[in-house]
Every structure is written in structure tokens, then in C-alpha cells.
Amino acid sequence: MGISIDSTFVIQIVSFLVLWAVLKALLFDPVLRVLHQREARTRGSLEAAEQLRTQASAFQTEHATSIREVRREVFEQADESRKASTAEERKAVTAARDAAATAITRVRSDIEIQIREARALLSREAAELAQQAADKVLGRKTA
Questions:
Q1: In this structure, is the dihedral angle defined by the CA atoms of residues 92, 94, 98 and 99, taken in order, positive or negative?
Q2: pTM of the model
Q3: Torsion, CA 104, CA 105, CA 110, CA 111, rounded to 10
Q4: Residue-level pLDDT, tens digit, the chain, 143 residues
Q5: Start-to-end Cα distance in the chain
Q6: Separation CA 119–CA 115 (nearest Å)
Q7: Rounded Cα–Cα distance for residues 116 and 95 (Å)
Q8: What is the C-alpha separation between 71 and 76, in angstroms, rounded?
Q9: Which of 73, 68, 54 has the alpha carbon at shortest distance from 133?
Q10: Does 143 reside within a domain?
């Protein structure tokens, strides 16, 4: 009982090799090419997303720093205004109680106006920074 190799075996080997070559050219190579392209696009998209995440983080930090600075300035101005009003109050109290009441009312309204203006400015700047951050993150101009 020996193994005999006849011409059909050779034909089967040749047929297999021809089929393999045809499938490689028509199926395997194009599929591998598409898979490599998909992987490259995915890798590129992930890198771009990471860059956008980093930029958004930087913008967020910058925005928070800007808000803290504006708040500090507003509090300093309010503090300076309060100190000035206290000095005026002392002078006015010695001169006359009526004059002191008028000066205090005027200074407080000025402070309120300054605070409202500072808040309005802060609100506009925050909206602009948020718009810029959204534009950067999205990579396009938003409405």
C-alpha cells in the first residue's frame, strides 16, 4: 500500500497555485490595501482628536486664568472704591451727616455701575472665548 503520485496530483497542485495567485491578485491584496488605509485614517483621526483635546485643555486653562484675573481686578477696584468711600464718609461725617449720606449714595451707585460694567465685559469676553474655543475644537466657524 504505497502512495502513488500521478498526473492528477500535479494538476491539483498547479490548479491550487493558479487559484491562489488569482485570489491574491483579485481579493487578498485589495482587501489588505483597504485595511491598511482604514488603519492609517483611524490613526490619523485619533492623533487629530488628541491634538484637539490638548488645544481645548489649553484654551480652558487660559480662559479660567483670564476669568480669575478679571475677577481679581474687579475685586481690587471694588476694594479701592470702598476704601475711597470710607475716607469720604469720615470727612463728610465730620462736616455734616446729610452731606455724608449723599456721598455714600453716590459712591455706592458708582460701584454698582462699575460692577455691572465689569460683569458685562466679563460676560462678553467669556462668550467670545467660548466661541473661539468651540471654533478651534470643531475646526470650523460656528454660528
A1: negative
A2: 0.36
A3: 70
A4: 567 778 888 899 999 999 999 999 999 999 999 999 999 999 999 999 999 999 999 999 999 999 999 999 999 999 999 999 888 887 777 877 777 778 889 999 999 999 999 999 999 999 888 888 888 888 888 76
A5: 85
A6: 6
A7: 32
A8: 8
A9: 54
A10: no
- Count of CA atoms in the C-beta half-sphere (13 A) of 59: 17
Q: Please report whether residue 64 resides in a domain.
A: yes
Is residue 130 in a domain? yes
Query: Can you give the residue range of the structural domain that contains 67?
Result: 7-138
pLDDT in tens, 71-88: 999 999 999 999 998 888
Q: Which amino acid is at 20?
A: W
Domain count, the chain: 1
> Would residue 34 count as lying in a domain?
yes
Measured distance CA(142)–CA(132) in Å, rounded: 9
